[in-house]
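>> received
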Amino acid sequence: MAEYITLQGDTWDGICHKLYGSSRQMTELMQLNPAHLRVVIFSAGIRLRIPAEAEIIDDELPPWKRGQ
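>> returned
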């Protein structure tokens, strides 16, 4: 698992958009970090576990571009 260190003002959806280009992985990101579920706006320096890019499948891509 990879890590992301928050910047002041980060939000769950903003982190997902920054890392993956959309907020669709927000639920998975939150599930990997249950200790921070009540956080709405992050302070700087919090380490979050993030799913590796290989684990994220973009459902909007056609099957031949999903790597399956």
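>> DSSP finds two helices and two strands in the chain.
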